[in-house]
Amino acid sequence: MTDIASLIQDTRVYSSLYTDPEIFACEMAEIYARNWVYVGHASEVPERGDYVRRTIGMEPVIVTRTTDGINVLANRCTHRGNLLCQAERGKRRAFACQYHGWVFNPSGELVDTPFPAGGTADHSSLHLRRATVEQYRGFIFATFAEHPIPLLDHLGFARQALDRASDLSPAGEVYIGRTWIKHLFQSNWKMLSENEADGYHVNFVHDSFAKAIKRQAKYDNVLSGDEQQVAAVVRSLGNGHAELDYAVTYDRPLSWLGVKSNRYPDYTDAMTKAYGAERAIEIMRAGPPHTFIFPNLFLAETCLVMIEPVNVGQTVNWHAPLLLKGAPDSINQRILRQGEVAMGPSSFLTADDSIIAERQWRALLGSPAWLDLSRGLQRERPRNDGVIESHYTDETPNRGFWHHYKSVMTSAPAMAVA
Amino acid sequence: MTDTPISETEFRALQEFVFTEAKYADESRYDEWEALLTDDMQYRVPAGDGTDLSPFAPSIINDNRSRLATRLRQLRTGTRLSQAPPSVMRRLIANLTATRAGAIEYEMQGNFVVYEYQTQSTNQLQVWPGQATWRIRVTADGLRLCAKTVLLVHRSGPLPSLSFLI
Questions:
Q1: Which CATH superfamily is domain A158-410 in?
Q2: pTM summary value
């Protein structure tokens, strides 16, 4: 028996947490099946009957809009286990299984079975498994936990990141289009989760980018190569959520987009009308969040990222641009273009992150060891509200991630793995 | 002029150009590859299933000339980890057709498959099949590439890092 608690200490974790298939199975059961997981954005299913296919951990689900709101249903016929929806998205008034024709309504109730004379099954016990769903500003979270805590309790301080992303829109809402880019990492999912809020690697993994762009305002501060110069910070937000905050490095509106403040006057006007001049200027200066929300959502500045664990050694990083509702096309075009720089198989940044994650995984697979996460322990600044802030390069987010991971993974009775 | 059928000689020259471009890409010869481009080169690798007509649909690659220059500068640094060392590659190109596109341009289209030996982390053979369209312009310096669009067969699915020239 492996005791997971013994693998996680305050400033180090043991490598089998990334490589052991049984721990992975445990994570699917304890983290993904029993806690809030991000499954989509309301703008992806705008009309009744619209659905998208997603996963909660490895479990395929259908996210669909009904007259009562958003439902999240297991994408598995309760008869013989066929996927009810194969297409990634579509519009359905009911979900009919193509194997034997069983039909489920959008609430997951079994409403019809063909050739009823031979049927003996009790329909009421054959509903599709249905998750509890809550939304915050259009971001949809779901869980199969029987008695989940309220979503806002789970989000805690990370809720402010969803606000920060949404407030960049004059309508107070972001939206997600139809196309996702899916980037395959041959590594464990936690290597992505941890890397999203890791400031330490930026000067090394992204050195080639710094040289190629000869630096520009947006990245000047963190790519300066001088520890004392770096003003951006990391924060551990609690519940495993963490962020890098660049706001302090932006001295004027829209510098995070690499443009002059007066580049999009229509956007500035719309923002001023929506929020008043002072607040609009501050929203546009502080820019978007760079925040990881445990366990699978990453607000990657101009992109939204979903982490999909495939197996212990494979993960898919999904991304789509975080478009601003009610904003002029010109600024959304810029947001799209900025995201293409950062995210995806051919991007200037994550193409290289994936290589490091893959090398890490290979190293740990054959060479098990403790991994050190002690950086910055002596200089982090706990706030009164429980958030811990530290230098951009400190491992405060990793410590927060593992602290929460440990509490989730060891809170259930069936914790230890063989 | 634009109605004139493509002659054997023209087709051979276009094919030769496409094969040269492929060879430089296979061998990561960035300077020679870049010398084939016009100043208004567009390099696109779309994502998704082709049904998204939104102007905000993200692409795998959507480079104008300036962004493509940045891409090549990054590859030349030697620390672009996803191409350091460069992948070992060979590509096959087939089913080529050529049409005229205005007075001084041609459009070549064909199928391709790139065999990539990924040497940066997984040490696996990756296979990249698809359809490519080359827009080729007649210039005073000879034929030059002004647009390349690459439709990968698996562009709507998960893709590993793709930072070589496809």
A1: Naphthalene 1,2-dioxygenase Alpha Subunit; Chain A, domain 1 (3.90.380.10)
A2: 0.96
